[in-house]
## 1
Amino acid sequence: MFKIDKFPEIKRAFHQHNRLSSIVYKADEKIRPDDEASKIPANEAFEKWDEFDQNEFALIIFNTFKDIKPKLYHHFMNYFSKWEEVFSETWEECDEDQINNLLGLVLEIGYGNYWLPNKYYDHKPLLGCLSAPRTHKKPCDI
């Protein structure tokens, strides 16, 4: 899991992300079959959650790492990349794929293709139960 305690601003955003996701799941439980109106609160909650993640949470992650420019590991294709090869120089230039990759650096599962260097993660189970993803063991040559 991402070492969230070392980054207070990301930690606050992560808690907001989890709060909004909880609202979505609770609203989903109230959806009734053949009742389109019962879907409206869940859809609205999901839009707020997605808007926060895409516009605020990802921006906080971008601002945290844009000056550090850590090397990134593509965990599906098994190679390293430089920060500037993956992300735009400014937030305004980031596209949807880059935003999802930013979220994946912290959320790890279900978003993005890249991981930060191993020093940014511990091996605690995600959400208290899911095994942390395996990290790479190969040396970085960039």
Note: The longest strand covers residues 72-74.
## 2
Amino acid sequence: MNKWIELAGGLVLLIGLILIGWASSVYSWTFLGKDFNLLHSAWIFLKGGIFWLLGGISVILIILGITDLKE
């Protein structure tokens, strides 16, 4: 695939996601009484990812420290 088509397609998708996330937070998107605030859901997912990333890094550092103590 052409690199420019890939770049343009990625930018269109990214801008579309940003606009959909913004629109779902500004306007009241409800379906069967459920609120679809996608921006809030994305923020919670990002915070959870950062939490587990830092937890994984800390476990790796502990394991590396234990292996250094054995030598």
Note: Strands lie at 30-31, 34-35.
## 3
Amino acid sequence: MKLLRYIRKTLGLKLLNVKVMLFLLLLILLPWDYSQPYLTYIEGWDYPISWCIFPFYLASFGFLTLFYFGIIYINSDVPFMQHINMYQVIRTGRLRWAAGQIGGIFLRSLIITLLMVLFTLLPFLGKIEWSADWGRMVYTLASERKNLSEFASASNNLDFRFYYEILDKFTPVQLMALAVALCTLICTFLGLFMFCISLYGDRMFAMAGALVFVLMLYFCENFPLQKYKRFMAHFVPTYWAEIALMETRTSGYYRMPSLTYMFAFLCIAIAGMSALICLRAKHVEFEWENEDA
């Protein structure tokens, strides 16, 4: 119970700071820009759209890249050695402090993911179909991508799209649950990766390593040889958030590994990094900084 209370307290510090507030402001503004072509199209049809929009935002390279940069930014205070943490270590002990930071990273990732789900819906308020089915509008947008692209070129570029192949594989509830779970685990993976590297090395190495994962997303998107592109995708967790594309083939190949592989990889990696963090926290020489959390 003491650990849970400490994790809750740590979560408050991780959420109520300037970096997170700036990131959330970006997340609120981005969907309004990305949704404009669809809003115009929906108003022309006068028909509501499914509430399950978030997974298709994640399939946009531009949106996902900005999101990951934000995740790196809010975790740039690793290894959490601001003076406020010094008093926490004295009161709770090194292991409980490390466990609290790990739990705080996970819960912050979950809350930010859920907030992003909400923010992607805000531009469509009043035009949302609250149904367990995809609805006519999403099927129309997915099956008429070519016509919609021609429409968008006359006004705004389409920054995210609906993919017909995924609609037959998952219901909106299933796809949303998978997208939230994957996105949360990926953000947790990035946060713990930065925490772990900064404890064993340096904060700059931690940020550089996280940026490499974001850059690898670009290579997974644009690598010309599809067979090797799919092999590469097995080792780039940042790519897996594009779950809406997992049933869409390119040159006969699926883009991503199986769901079992992705969840197993992330859970094992998170557990392994958590163990390394706790092990290092027992012996590391703390160097406290005059910097806000």
Note: The beta strands are 49-50, 128-129, 249-250, 253-254.
## 4
Amino acid sequence: MNVALTKCFYCGKDNDILLAIRYNRKGEPSTDMSKFHGKADPRRPCNECKEAMRKGVMLCEVRDGEKGDNPYRTGKLWVVSAEACKRIFKDIDFDGVRFIFIEERYAKRVGLHDPENNVSETGE
């Protein structure tokens, strides 16, 4: 396979198209790109996520009790200002952090599931 479509690690949407650039004398790609197909690279957010992280901190909801670098996600994402995150989560330095996982119970506890809390005054 000489083409692969990667996923955004942060939102899960399609991200980059990777093309093999080296071929052998038979015209076959020297690197099998299929190992990259459908995979996500946490170093390369999609353009939407880059913009969201520029505006604030992305909170990605995961199932309660999930641990590790890539826990099971519920599909819910929110972008919250760094200032609000500093007030809500006291133990995290949000000056350099732009993405965190949050368990469902904590997302509910801080009001992220309340629709009235999910739109800023500017409508973003």
Note: The mean pLDDT is 88.
